[in-house]
Amino acid sequence: MASTEIVFIVTLVLYLVITRWKRRKEDSIIPEPEPKQPEWRDYSPLELREFNGVHRSLVFLAIKGTVYNVTLGSKFYGPKGPYSAFGGHDATRGLAKSSFDDEFIPDSEADDLDDWSDLNDEEKQTLDDWKAFFDQKYPAVGRLISNKEASQARTKMNNSPEKN
Ligand code: HEM
């Protein structure tokens, strides 16, 4: 075999090995999952509790009537996070009281929303500081409405003439 042929074959083999290696390296880079940004809407506590990183991959929580998409902070609010008690729930009272005890997480099945007007001034200040933090870090995705209001809205929609 002529030396030019050997050089050609060696170059070709090297080229194939390098391109295949590069392609395999690119394939192994998995893109970061993009958290979906849902459209603004109302959530009842019963709907909100689905967004806890278990039932749905998105994680939401509510503060003072606003629902935040905290999926980017899943390591905190997802099922294995230190603040998982807040994921899918109204975190208002817990944040104000600096506690994630069950007693400060309102029952998702209650008819009415938790009313935080009984908090003392210090707790209200703590709460407002946390709210400012969430406003800055996480997108708001909707309003928290009571289960009662949500079911009334559903009944109204089902009885609307356009539906029939
Ligand atoms: C032993 C007590 C605690 C320690 C050592 C602690 C530690 C931390 C640390 C290190 C961070 C920042 C993590 C980061 O940015 O990577 C953080 C964030 C946070 N902590 Fe705590 N914490 C404690 C108690 C609490 C309590 C009692 C609450 C409220 C009930 C709380 C709520 C939060 C929240 C909401 C964040 C923000 C997470 C985010 O970026 O979305 N922490 N904590």
UniProtKB/TrEMBL annotation:
<dbReference type="GO" id="GO:0016020">
    <property type="term" value="C:membrane"/>
</dbReference>
<dbReference type="GO" id="GO:0005783">
    <property type="term" value="C:endoplasmic reticulum"/>
</dbReference>
<dbReference type="GO" id="GO:0046872">
    <property type="term" value="F:metal ion binding"/>
</dbReference>
<protein>
    <submittedName>
        <fullName>Cytochrome P450 regulator Dap1</fullName>
    </submittedName>
</protein>
<dbReference type="InterPro" id="IPR036400">
    <property type="entry name" value="Cyt_B5-like_heme/steroid_sf"/>
</dbReference>
<dbReference type="GO" id="GO:0006696">
    <property type="term" value="P:ergosterol biosynthetic process"/>
</dbReference>
<dbReference type="GO" id="GO:0020037">
    <property type="term" value="F:heme binding"/>
</dbReference>
<feature type="domain" description="Cytochrome b5 heme-binding">
    <location>
        <begin position="43"/>
        <end position="145"/>
    </location>
</feature>
<dbReference type="Pfam" id="PF00173">
    <property type="entry name" value="Cyt-b5"/>
</dbReference>
<feature type="region of interest" description="Disordered">
    <location>
        <begin position="145"/>
        <end position="164"/>
    </location>
</feature>
<keyword id="KW-0349">Heme</keyword>
<keyword id="KW-0479">Metal-binding</keyword>
<dbReference type="InterPro" id="IPR001199">
    <property type="entry name" value="Cyt_B5-like_heme/steroid-bd"/>
</dbReference>
<feature type="compositionally biased region" description="Polar residues">
    <location>
        <begin position="148"/>
        <end position="164"/>
    </location>
</feature>
<comment type="similarity">
    <text>Belongs to the cytochrome b5 family. MAPR subfamily.</text>
</comment>
<dbReference type="GO" id="GO:0008047">
    <property type="term" value="F:enzyme activator activity"/>
</dbReference>
<dbReference type="InterPro" id="IPR050577">
    <property type="entry name" value="MAPR/NEUFC/NENF-like"/>
</dbReference>
<keyword id="KW-0256">Endoplasmic reticulum</keyword>
<keyword id="KW-0408">Iron</keyword>
